[in-house]
Amino acid sequence: MPPKFNRARIQAMKYLALLSIGIILWPLLEYLLHRFSGHVFRFPPIFFNEHKKHHAKKDYFAPKLKKLGAAIIFLSLLTLINTLWLNSLEALVFSTGFVGMYLFYEYMHYQFHISEPKTKAGLILRKHHFYHHFHNSSLNHGVTSTFLDRIFGTYSDAGQVKIPRRYAMTWLFDENNQVKKIYQKDFLVTGRASN
Question: Is residue 78 domain-shared with residue 29, that is, in the same domain?
Fold first, then answer.
């Protein structure tokens, strides 16, 4: 006998669906923002300028306060817009899924730059991202996945990623300032080591 669907259960399923939709839609915005605001249209200027600094300066990330301010404004607008067809709580649940994925993206992106991969997927995504940084910034826009790059024709197999030494992540190197053996087929650091 199938379970009875009462109002509370239906509402809980609706909340779960809205949360999931928010989670699923984040990678699309991540891709579109990165590709179009960060590289093609270069708008809004504050996003473009921070993104340009991230590409140009080793270990540069936009200040957390700027990101927090942008996230609060975006969350507020997203929730407000969603109240046109959802009640306030439903709009907040959707926005929570979306912003939760955004926070996951920020964490992942930062980890790519400061710590070595712990899984094969982590290595693949780092190579994908660093190919974008150091080979061709019009390709490989996805950070949390390669999926949308494949769909929109901006995917490139990273192969061995060449990184200028002055930009190379510290986690790549051993105690002798050489690329760790485990990463030598995936990354090639170019330029001389400073003494």
Answer: yes
How far is residue 21 from each of residues 25, 112, 151, measured CA to CA in Å?
Answer: 6, 26, 19
pLDDT digits (tens, 9 = 90+) for 55-82: 999 889 989 998 888 888 888 888 889 9
Closest CA to 21 of 86, 71, 70, 68: 86
CB 21 within 8 Å of CB 97? yes
176: how many CB neighbours lie within 10 A of its CB?
A: 7
Give the structural domain span for 111: 1-115
User: pLDDT, tens digit, for every residue of 85-111?
Assistant: 999 999 999 999 999 999 999 999 999
CB 91 within 8 A of CB 83: yes
Distance CA 132, CA 25 (A): 22
Q: Is cis: bond before 44, omega within 30 of 0?
A: yes
Q: How many CA atoms lie within 13 A of 163 on its CB side?
A: 34
Q: pTM of this prediction?
A: 0.89
Domain shared by 95 and 163, yes or no? no
